[in-house]
Amino acid sequence: MFYRPEDGHGLPHNPFNAIVTPRPIGWISSRDSTGTDNLAPYSFFNAIAYVPPQVMFASTSAKPDQNNTKDSVANIAETGVFCVNIVEYAARHAMNATSAMLGKNVDEFAAAGLTAVECETIDCARVQGAPAALECKMTQIIDLPGDSNKLVLGEVTGIHMRDNCIRDGRFEITAFQPLARLGYRDYTHVSEVFELVRPGEK
């Protein structure tokens, strides 16, 4: 099968998300200028550079109470900071609860029964007990082609790691089993890993 996206795929559901998988989930926390905390998951998310460490996420829809975007992007544009909380399998239901379209004045931490704790390097909350959290300073927000498509880039200014996820000097992902997004309504989690050594490496 071949199709041009502009012509449509003819299938019951869009296959694009199912092709580009698995995708890590950035559980993005932000805060507006009035102090209201927001928390929302984004599966168009990844790390993009080592030095300095940088991340990105993309928002692809809008809410009626925000100006052609979602709360996360609006808050970050306003304050210049955000935090990426890493989602573990055990938090899958709480993560899903924070994907609800709630009013911009609603605190998703409270709505999902999560505890917010303050970040160290930025004025923002993070998810208490998350396996890891990346405190970020926004560097750019880029308008992408398409309605409401925005790319947020950030430099990591502080990193939290849960102590029980550090084993033998490594951040051990099987200790918490990171959640990943597949296509449609499907998710997966990482429970086992294998190692490959690049040619020429020792």
Q: How would you describe what is shown here?
A:
This protein has 202 residues and is mainly beta. It has one domain (5-189): Electron Transport, Fmn-binding Protein, Chain A (Pnp Oxidase, Chain A), CATH 2.30.110.10. It has four helices and 14 strands. It has a seven-stranded antiparallel beta sheet with strand order 3-2-6-9-10-5-4, covered by helices on one side. The protein has a three-stranded antiparallel beta sheet with strand order 1-13-14, with no helix packed on it. Strands 7-8 form a two-stranded antiparallel ribbon. β13 (179-181) and β14 form a beta hairpin. The protein is globular and about 50 Å long. It starts with 15 loop residues before the first helix and ends in a 13-residue tail after the last strand. 30% of the residues are buried. Keywords: Oxidoreductase. Its EC number is 1.5.1.-. GO terms for molecular function: oxidoreductase activity.
Notable characteristics:
202 residues; mainly beta; Pnp Oxidase, Chain A; EC 1.5.1.-; oxidoreductase; Flavin_Rdtase-like_dom; Flavin reductase family protein; oxidoreductase activity
Could you provide a short overview of the structure?
With 202 residues, the protein is mainly beta.
The proportion of strand residues reads 35-45%
Poorly predicted regions: none
CATH class: Mainly Beta
Largest sheet: 7 strands, antiparallel
Tally of individual domains: 1
Distance between the termini: 42 Å
Q: How large is the radius of gyration?
A: 18 Å
Strand order of the largest sheet: 3-2-6-9-10-5-4
Tell me the series of helices and strands, N- to C-terminal: HEEEEEHEHHEEEEEEEE
Total number of helical segments? 4
Instruction: Say which CATH homologous superfamily is assigned.
Output: Electron Transport, Fmn-binding Protein, Chain A
What is the residue-averaged pLDDT?
96
Q: Indicate the structural class.
A: mainly beta
Helix content: 10-25%
Keywords: Oxidoreductase
Domain Flavin reductase like: 18-173
EC number: 1.5.1.-
InterPro entries: Flavin_Rdtase-like_dom (IPR002563), Split_barrel_FMN-bd (IPR012349)
